[in-house]
């Protein structure tokens, strides 16, 4: 069994990007610039945005953090987006989700200039991805593809089962795994909360990608020997015996499933760190598109 070490691979990617940025600066070119917009002060979102900003520093990117109050109106947020769209100094930017209830998320994501949408959430970029055209791939799916690529995990002709159909992970993953090329060329089954007899389907899977957010949902009796397991789920489970008062777990019962798997991602340290590395990679792509 091989652990797909997202922490290690993401560090490799950051080192590669840092080298590229160094060359740019030596040539007198400007470094890529990533901006992040966060509305309110949700703990998990702040932590996540903080790690994005630190990752930018590490690779030599410029970064800007725009913090708006929880009471911010949709109009104010749209004005901020217009400013970022118009600012030639900024190559790419992200809007940290979730947004407070007074703001229409769909409207906000539509307002982002597709050429600066390094999260890959704009319908134009999503559509291009679905049509195999070159575009920004959402960072988490992009990170999973990169793990397959760097560990040489065979996907051609395999049966991939995706659990969860979110627009951020499940749906794009189901499209990408079925596309021509590597990683891809697999036969995809997309399962969700209305799927009957899910364990019958997962037991036939060569590759399982789960993004459900249900702790330890995938058990050993639901998978076959030699399966490849990608765990995108991340849940804080309250636990008074831990110093933080909680522990972090994924969708997979790692203890038992790892004994049957040929490759598996841990939580934490699997897909999570890859997401930030691929966001940096998308920002680099955005800068190339603008230059």
Describe this structure in words.
- This protein is an alpha/beta fold.
- The protein has 2 domains: 28-113, Rossmann fold (3-Layer(aba) Sandwich), CATH 3.40.50.10860; 139-272, Rossmann fold (3-Layer(aba) Sandwich), CATH 3.40.50.720.
- The chain is built from 10 helices and 11 strands.
- It has helices spanning 6-26, 43-59, 74-86, 105-111, 123-130, 139-151, 170-177, 198-202, 254-257, 271-290; strands at residues 2-3, 33-39, 62-68, 92-95, 159-163, 187-191, 207-210, 228-231, 235-238, 246-249, 263-264.
- The strands form 3 sheets. It has a 6-stranded parallel β-sheet with strand order 1-11-8-7-5-6. A 3-stranded parallel β-sheet has the order 3-2-4. Strands 9-10 form a two-stranded antiparallel sheet.
- It is globular, with a radius of gyration of 19 Å.
- The model has no long low-confidence stretch (mean pLDDT 96).
- Assign the CATH superfamily of the largest domain: NAD(P)-binding Rossmann-like Domain
Major sheet description: 6 strands, parallel
Topology order in helix (H) and strand (E) letters: EHEHEHEHHHEHEHEEEEHEH
Helix/sheet category: alpha/beta
Overall radius of gyration: 19 Å
Number of helices: 10
**Whole-number mean pLDDT:** 96
Query: Which residues sit in consecutive blocks of at least 5 with pLDDT less than 50?
Result: none
What is the CATH-assigned architecture of the largest domain?
3-Layer(aba) Sandwich
- For the termini, the CA-CA separation is 44 Å
Q: Class of the largest domain, according to the CATH hierarchy?
A: Alpha Beta
Count of all domains: 2
Overall morphology: globular
Which band does the percent of strand residues land in? 15-25%
How are strands sequenced across the largest beta sheet? 1-11-8-7-5-6
CATH topology of the largest domain: Rossmann fold
């Amino acid at each position: 069994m091989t652990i797909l070490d997202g922490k290690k691979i993401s560090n490799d990617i950051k080192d590669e990007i840092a080298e590229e940025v160094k060359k740019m600066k030596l040539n007198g070119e400007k470094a890529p610039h990533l901006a992040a917009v966060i509305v309110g002060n949700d703990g998990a979102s702040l932590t996540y945005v903080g790690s994005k900003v630190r990752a930018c520093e590490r690779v030599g990117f410029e970064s800007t953090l725009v913090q708006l109050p929880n009471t911010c109106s949709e109009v104010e947020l749209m004005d901020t987006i217009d400013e970022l769209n118009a600012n030639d100094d900024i190559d790419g930017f992200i809007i940290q989700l979730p947004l407070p209830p007074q703001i229409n998320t769909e409207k906000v994501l539509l307002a982002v200039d597709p050429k600066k949408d390094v999260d890959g959430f704009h319908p134009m970029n999503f559509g291009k991805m679905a049509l195999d055209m070159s575009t920004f791939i959402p960072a988490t799916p992009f990170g999973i593809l990169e793990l397959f690529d760097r560990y040489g995990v065979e996907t051609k002709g395999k049966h991939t089962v995706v659990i969860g159909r979110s627009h951020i992970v499940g749906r794009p993953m189901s499209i990408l795994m079925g596309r021509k090329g590597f990683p891809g060329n697999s036969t995809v089954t997309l399962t969700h909360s209305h799927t009957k007899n899910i364990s019958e389907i997962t037991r036939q899977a060569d590759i399982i990608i789960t993004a459900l957010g249900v702790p330890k949902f995938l058990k050993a009796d639901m998978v076959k020997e030699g399966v490849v397991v990608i765990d995108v789920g991340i849940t804080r489970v309250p636990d008074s015996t831990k110093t933080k008062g909680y522990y972090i777990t994924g969708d997979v019962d790692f203890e038992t499933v790892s004994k049957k798997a040929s490759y598996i991602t841990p939580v934490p340290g699997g897909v999570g760190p890859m997401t930030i590395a691929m966001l940096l990679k998308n920002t680099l792509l955005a800068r190339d598109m603008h230059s």
